[in-house]
Amino acid sequence: MSEITIRPALASDAPLLLELIRGLAEYERLAHEVVATEAQLAAELGAAQPVVHALIAELEGSPVGFALYFFSFSTFLGRQGLYLEDLYVRPQARSHGIGRALLAELARRAAERSCGRLEWSVLDWNVDAQRFYTDLGARPMADWTVWRLDRAGIESLGYDGKS
């Protein structure tokens, strides 16, 4: 049995985390959208009160994946939720239980904080991920669609970030 270790990412892990983020972006065909920098990631992870957290997965001591998450709030439940922003395991390390180990650690952290939910989004075409999550007991939220304002949309509503 392979040894899997899940540990919190530190600010010093920013170069590794950015490398893994780029791997995820390539897999999702979105590499052109990655503008994050090591300095930004280090600042966020090293903040006194970080709004983002990350886990690094290691297989036999070698980093092979990550999960990046933050805490949200459900008005209906009246409690926090844990939102998984990204989960990625390098292709050569898949089928070793790393994704499951990352999700189990996230579930442990959610339970520790009495979260009412653990949620994430999955690309429509990523049927392998959908199958994996279904096998874990997760279910898609069929009646919900993710909406987004990008930076230009935010600015069009009157905020330019300078005031």
Structure write-up:
With 163 residues, this protein is α+β, with helices and mostly antiparallel strands. The chain has one domain (4-156): Aminopeptidase. Helix content is 32%, strand content 25%. It contains five helices and five strands; from the N terminus they run βααβββαβαα. It has helices at residues 14-27, 38-45, 98-112, 127-135, 151-156; strands spanning 4-8, 53-59, 62-74, 79-89, 117-120. A five-stranded mixed sheet has the order 1-2-3-4-5, sandwiched between helices. Strand 4, helix 3 and strand 5 form a beta-alpha-beta unit. Helix 1 (14-27) crosses helix 2 (38-45). The longest helix has 15 residues, at 98-112. The chain starts with a strand and ends in a 7-residue tail after the last helix. The mean pLDDT is 94.
Provide a quick synopsis of the model.
With 163 residues, the chain is α+β, with helices and mostly antiparallel strands.
Question: Taking Cα atoms only, what radius of gyration do you get, to the nearest Å?
Answer: 17 Å
> Order of SSEs, N→C?
EHHEEEHEHH
pLDDT below 50 for ≥5 consecutive residues: which ranges?
none
Number of domains: 1
Q: Summarize the amount of helix as a percent range.
A: 25-40%
Q: According to CATH, what is the topology? A: Aminopeptidase
Number of DSSP strands? 5
Q: Helix tally?
A: 5
State the end-to-end CA separation. 56 Å
CATH class: Alpha Beta
Judged by helices, strands and strand pairing, the structural class is alpha+beta
Strand content: 15-25%
Sheet of most strands: 5 strands, mixed
